[in-house]
Amino acid sequence: MNNTILADFLIKKDDSYYCRYGDFYIDPLYPVKTAVVSHAHGDHASPGHQTTFATSFTIAFMEHRFSKYPKDGYQTKRFGESWMIGPVKLTLFPAGHILGSAQILMEYNGVRYLYTGDYKLQEDATCEAIVVVPADVLITETTFADPEVQHPDAAEEIQKLNDINSNILLGCYTLGKSQRITHLINTFCPDREVLLHHKMAMAHRLYEQYGDVPLRYKLYDRKSMKGTKDKVYLVPPLTFNSYFRATNVARVFASGWARLQQHNDLSLYISDHVDWTDLLTYIDQVRPIEIWTIHGDGTQLRTHFEGNILVRDIHQANSSLLID
């Protein structure tokens, strides 16, 4: 058995990651023959593939979002279920990012390659908790791979809303974040009522169908916030930005990015990605021989592990590799 790590096992090809040994793509953003999709966010899931492998929730969301496309190419895979694409063995494990989000373990010639997708270690009752997967190569996102980025406890952070004496306009992403925020408010801000923008309704309904946590909310209408000070109106980012002149409400945006906290009435650092500490924790648990970085800047991670673990940017490392 050959246990050599293959530098070209997974390479960046256009806007996706390609495994030439199994002839499949991970999270492709254009139609391909065979796609393995880590989760349902728009920068990872796209329509038109001949065959799409993913978890049941990811496929359910894609079927609703891409309803004009045929559904016969979707192949649902359970967490922990292994299958073969050519000579490569694949298994999905929970990533803790949003409901249905998966890490993708690929095994080939005795080597285990783990693609994390987006992931987090923080507790989140609205999605499956991350499962630690030992691997020889950890292919990890590095969205917040910066020692200065330390995300606070979400339960403590959401309770800041209890100190605001007005209705709140709260910006957050439609899929995953808005459901997590709804549950956090339901749990830790019991005197607050969640109002939901209509564009978030479909994702909430699917979470209620596929998830384990009930969500208490009402759809927003123009009379919802009149004469009260106990409402939290969840809106998508574009709507939040368009309401920059809104009066008699506190403006808040839930994100791990400092730049999205500027010009708001309160900072709300709630992220669905690992911060620096959790990234190092997960690396210690996975115990990889090599780390390949994607989705972000891995420079500080490479400096941190210099002389101990090989860390390389999969984009730069594969730039000179040719694809047949």
Number of helices: 8
- Count all strands and give the number: 19
Q: Kindly state the percentage of residues in helix.
A: 10-25%
Q: What is the count of structural domains?
A: 2
Note the overall shape: globular
CATH class of the largest domain: Alpha Beta
CATH level-4 homologous superfamily of the largest domain: Ribonuclease Z/Hydroxyacylglutathione hydrolase-like
Q: Could you give the distance between the termini?
A: 25 Å
Secondary-structure arrangement, i.e. CATH architecture of the largest domain: 4-Layer Sandwich
Strand order of the largest sheet: 7-8-9-10-11-18-19
Helix- and strand-based class?
alpha/beta
- Please compute the radius of gyration using only Cα atoms: 21 Å
Strand content: 25-35%
* Low-pLDDT residue spans: 319-324
Q: Give me the CATH fold name of the largest domain.
A: Metallo-beta-lactamase, Chain A
Helix-strand string: EEEEEHEEEEEEHEHEHEEHEEHEHEH
Protein name: Exonuclease
Keywords: Exonuclease, Hydrolase, Nuclease
GO molecular function: exonuclease activity
Organism: Sphingobacterium corticis
